[in-house]
Amino acid sequence: MHVHVLQHVPFEGLGCIEPWLQQRKAAVSFTRFFERDPLPQSAAIDIVIALGGPMSVNDEDQQAWLGAEKRFLADAVREGKAVLGICLGAQLIASSLGARVYPGPQKEIGWFPVMGQGASPGAFVFPESIEAFHWHGETFELPAGARLLASSQAFTHQAFQVGNRVIGLQFHLEATPSGVEAMIANCRHELVPQRYVQTEAQLRSVPECAYGKINAVMINILEFLTRRECITIPTARGL
User: Is residue 212 a part of any domain in this protein?
Assistant: First the structure.
């Protein structure tokens, strides 16, 4: 299994996904955009994981690689690859498939519940409610043919699925205590008190079991996307 990771900043990494890949003995390659790495040929790649970052998908004037990354993701979806997007990565998938990404009415930073939107044939089923870790200020329209998987009080569109092998998550199920500390260290200027923005103390106050719960859902998503019986279902755009 060859997994290619699209990493936008050094302080947002794979989190709990890394040991899962190690257990699977996966071959893992990276495009680290902050180091100007090139995008690979996609033919030999089985899974694409697009991680988070503080930039916007609409910042192509400042981040020239964004256009190429969107085209790479659209091609990966079209070719039937398993694709997982986290936070910025989910927004990039949405944008690459023609959906609008735009600033939300408020930021959502901290531990807040996301609610699963029920079961539908072939869709991943989220828990009815789970306290997830968020750090985002933008949101997105659903791509054509996508199914809504989860919502929160602050943002209706929190997770979506396209076909059987593409999932976008606005929140961070991969989060670990060290990963959260890295985000605080690099982005604490965003912790301006608002309804859905917690303090540093609140971000750090969750028990270890909170990470265990969200990490377990992340592993379930990875197992879902890589199960052998997956068959790509065409969307309205033929993806």
Answer: yes
Can you tell me the distance from the alpha carbon of 164 to that of 166, in angstroms, rounded to the nearest whole number? 6
Q: Give every strand in the sheet of 47-50, ordered side by side.
A: 27-32, 2-7, 47-50, 82-86, 166-169, 159-162, 147-151, 101-116, 130-140
Q: What is the pTM of this model?
A: 0.93
Residue 169 lies in a domain: yes
Q: Are strands 2-7 and 130-140 parallel, antiparallel or unpaired?
A: unpaired
The CA distances from residue 204 to 58, 102, 133, 178, 184, in Å, are 31, 29, 11, 10, 10
Local confidence band at 234 (pLDDT 50, 70, 90 cut-offs): very low
**Main-chain dihedrals φ then ψ at residue 197, nearest 5 degrees:** -125, 115
Parent domain of 120: 2-226
Tell me, yes or no, whether 234 lies in a domain: no
Q: What is the pLDDT of residues 188-207, one digit of tens each?
A: 999 999 999 999 999 999 99
Distance CA 95, CA 93 (A): 5
